[in-house]
């Protein structure tokens, strides 16, 4: 049989162990909760009413669970009795599921030149169409060399021809624009209907 002092120490170290093993905390739990009056929700979701932090903590200890402040801005603050480790595990699993279902859009680049030949143009066009069909955005660029920069309208004409050739699978997200010695245009895949 344990003495009252040993039971108190055992409960204290149990609470301390739970607090230390749980990382990345953003909620107040157990002894971190300060307040004269707290609205308490039991583990099954039923309301226990308004009580002091000490009463709520002892109620949580009886069930061998944690007292977690879920709404600190409410009047009075709302606390729930729950297994905090299980709660964090469920939350991490939900976040992982969200990341798995999330589609990351890459930006692929296709470089053209001012005096590009027909075959090279078609090859670059096929690459861009393949990127767009995979759901990626395409950055089309033309680098002007030497005196070519004095005739940006020739580059704009090549860009327009490229955009017209891609119009079945792409929309022009950003029109061709001269930036220094380069002209850039962005294409995005057409939304699926």
Account of the 3D structure:
- This protein is α/β, with parallel strands linked by helices.
- It folds into 2 domains: 97 residues, Translation initiation factor 3 (IF-3), N-terminal domain (Ubiquitin-like (UB roll)), CATH 3.10.20; 83 residues, Translation Initiation Factor IF3 (2-Layer Sandwich).
- The strands form 2 sheets. A 4-stranded mixed β-sheet has the order 2-1-4-3. Strands 5-6-8-7 form a 4-stranded mixed β-sheet, with helices on one face.
- The radius of gyration is 31 Å and the shape is rod-shaped.
- The termini are far apart.
- The relative contact order is 0.10.
- The model has no long low-confidence stretch (mean pLDDT 84).
Could you tell me the mean pLDDT? 84
CATH architecture of the largest domain: Roll
- Structurally, the number of domains stands at 2
The secondary-structure class comes to alpha/beta
Order of helices and strands: HEEHEEHEHEHEE
Strand content: 25-35%
What name is given to the CATH topology of the largest domain?
Ubiquitin-like (UB roll)
Over all CA atoms, what is the radius of gyration? 31 Å
CATH-level-4 superfamily name of the largest domain = Translation initiation factor 3 (IF-3), N-terminal domain
